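If I may wish for something, please sit down with the protein I am sending here and say whether tokens and residues agree:
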Amino acid sequence: MEEHETIVKNRSAALRAAFPATIPVMTGYLCLGAAFGILLRTAGYGIGWSIAMSMICYCGSMQFVGVSLLTAAFDPFQALLMSVMVNARHAFYGLSMLEKYRGTGPVRPVLICTLTDETFSLVSTLEPPEGVARRDFYFWISLLDYLYWQVGCTLGNAVGGLLTFDTTGLDFTLTALFIVLLLEQVKKKENRAAGIIGMVCTAASLAVFGPDNFLIPAMILLLAVLLGGRKKLCK
């Protein structure tokens, strides 16, 4: 009985430590998820579609792309290729989190499946406070971010049918959220070099491969540069 109470207390402490760190993601996910829900509703798809896509897909950028795929002519190959291209960056996220997620036990599948851009930004830079288990800390960050997205998408779709305004530009909220996360990262002096490297690699790939094909080459180039200069960056 005492052991069970100790486990509950430890998990509660981890939740209290994780929640403040997720507040910026919460504000972004609620707004961004609501934008997706509204767009999906205006495309003619109800709340069931919104819940299913946000629970199963859980990839904001691809979900926005998915709205246009649902309203266009059915082309499974194009949908598959687009999904791989848009979400290929998660492979790099996963590789970089191998050591951090080592030893997380039964919650590891949850950590893997809920790893998004914003969650990666948090768990890759934050360490649990003293007395809080690393596994529980990262679990709550990942789960809270996941729940924020579900709530935002569901509420947006629920009220989307009641709104009568031009939704043009709502998908820009995704870009805006990425910009905010970048600004939060470069506030720390030790992260600025990596941020500059990321912008330079992205700009170079954009110039060479064009706006439709630059994402994957940019990620490969960025990974190569960061791995090659990791000793200097760590210093």
Summary: The mean pLDDT is 82.
